[in-house]
Design goal:
This protein has helices spanning 14-21, 43-56, 79-92, 123-128, 131-134, 143-154, 196-205, 251-260; strands spanning 2-6, 32-35, 59-62, 100-101, 105-110, 164-169, 209-212, 219-223, 226-230, 246-250. It has a single domain, classed as Purple Acid Phosphatase, chain A, domain 2 (4-Layer Sandwich), CATH 3.60.21. The protein has 265 residues and is an alpha/beta fold. The chain binds fe (ii) ion (FE2). The site of fe (ii) ion has 6 residues, from loops.
Length: 265
């Protein structure tokens, strides 16, 4: 059994839907997939993608991204109603948004949003960032309140006690996961990338691995005992993404480690 991960499938793009359909049908029947959000704002495409993945894997654990909660084209009253719609779609497709707890490993999805803990957005970002027009929240609910609302839903799940805990979120839990080479004019988007509350929660959950999405910058970072990993499929024009599933845990390797210590070479 392996635990594989990917995010940001964005199946609104034909190339990405093709990638999904071309995934082998039988290779993953013993494996679990972490799916870290941004599949599609369109209900039909979201359901189709989740069902396709649900048929291929032993289990799929999912958390929605910002695109999944856009309200235009899907008749949801607001993005909280859309969240409930998405939760129902996952249930219908045999995909789960709750933790998956096995004997030796637990996978905990962390709901979230961005709360400007990475900086205040400029007027330009507030005007141009699509979420500010494509999402609608109940009166008085600003992004920090949305973040508090979603992260509060994670609280009951932070107490699992397993040899390995893997958490994942769509949004970034810390801004120093972004590479130093990002030019200053692109750093204007940092305020809408995530929330420090996620970092605080993954630490409390005892995670040794955290998978995230949203930035479409695929990389691994090791910080203070936690491996942070982003593996986005991303947009077709983004050539830096590997466009393949990545393995974050494997039962056989974990057993070998317990018996003989770390692998050499
Ligand atoms: Fe995103």
């Amino acid at each position: 059994m392996r635990i594989l991960a990917i995010s940001d499938l964005h199946v609104d793009y034909d190339e990405n839907r093709r990638w999904l359909y071309e995934l082998p049908r039988h290779e993953y029947s013993d494996d679990i997939l972490i799916l870290a959000g941004d599949i599609s704002h369109e209900t039909g495409l979201l359901a189709e993608a989740l069902a396709e993945l649900g048929q291929r894997f032993r289990a799929v654990v999912f958390t929605p991204g910002n695109h999944d909660l856009w309200v235009y084209q899907n008749h949801a009253a607001d993005s909280l109603a859309r969240f409930e719609q998405v939760r129902q779609i996952t249930l219908d497709c045999g995909v789960q948004m709750e933790p998956l707890v096995l004997d030796e490993v637990a996978i905990i999805p962390l709901l979230g949003w961005y709360d400007f803990s990475f900086g205040e957005p400029s007027a330009e970002v507030r005007r141009a960032w699509m979420d500010f027009t494509a999402c609608r929240w109940p009166d008085g609910m600003d992004p920090p309140a949305v973040t508090r609302c979603f992260t509060a839903m994670n609280e009951p799940y932070l107490q699992v006690n397993r040899p390995t805990v893997i958490t994942f979120s769509h949004f970034l839990p810390r801004i120093d996961l972004m590479p130093l080479i990002i030019p200053p004019h692109r750093q204007g988007l940092y305020p809408v990338l995530g929330s420090r509350l996620l970092e605080e929660q993954l630490r409390r959950a005892g995670a040794s691995v955290h998978v995230y999405g949203h930035s479409h910058i695929n990389m691994r970072n090791f910080k203070e005992g936690v491996l942070y990993l982003n593996n986005a499929l991303g947009y077709p024009h983004e050539t830096r993404t590997a466009r393949q599933l990545v393995c974050v845990w494997e039962k056989q390797r974990a057993e070998n480690y317990r018996q003989t210590g770390p692998e050499r070479g």
